[in-house]
Design a protein that fits this description.
Blueprint (H helix, E strand, L loop, with lengths): L2 E3 L1 H8 L6 H11 L3 E4 L2 H13 L1 H12 L3 E4 L3 H13 L5 H12 L4 E3 L3 H4 L11 E3 L1
Parallel strand pairs: 1-2, 1-4, 2-3, 4-5
Length: about 140
């Protein structure tokens, strides 16, 4: 089963100085699962990496997608509708995080790799009582 990741996890994988870097990298290595990133997290992660770490690190991030280290999950019309409803119910969730939840629900995934416990911890998904948030 793939591991759904958010932008914070992708950022932490690239930034060796980030407090989440070691926990994320260790967890991903140990788990050995395919990483799955909603297409919506790519621009957010790329922006964060580029503005904080520079263009060479952004290139390294994108290389992970090109070389198959991270699979990309497309956004479907139903995901956008669900994200809209999630944003209305949880105003603190932005569009990107809402699409992560919508895709997790569509794919019946119960675990999300995230550095954002505060926002994802609030959500009550449709298919389980709550998400398991890792690492």
């Amino acid at each position: 089963m793939p591991l759904l990741v958010d932008a914070g996890v992708l950022y932490a994988m690239v930034d060796r100085q980030d407090a989440w870097h070691a926990p994320v990298v260790d967890y991903v290595r140990e788990l050995g699962a395919i990483l799955l990133a909603p297409v919506t997290v790519l621009p957010e992660a790329a922006y964060l990496v580029r503005t904080r770490l520079g263009d060479s690190k952004e290139l390294k991030l994108i290389e992970g997608f090109v070389n198959g280290g991270v699979a990309i999950e497309p956004l479907k019309a139903g995901d956008v509708s669900r994200a809209f409803r999630l944003m209305a119910k949880y105003p603190q969730l932005g569009f990107t995080d809402s699409t992560v939840v919508a895709i997790a629900e569509r794919l019946a995934l119960t675990t999300i790799a995230t550095t954002d416990r505060r926002h994802f911890g609030l959500v009550r998904p449709t298919h389980v009582k709550h998400f398991t948030l890792v690492p």
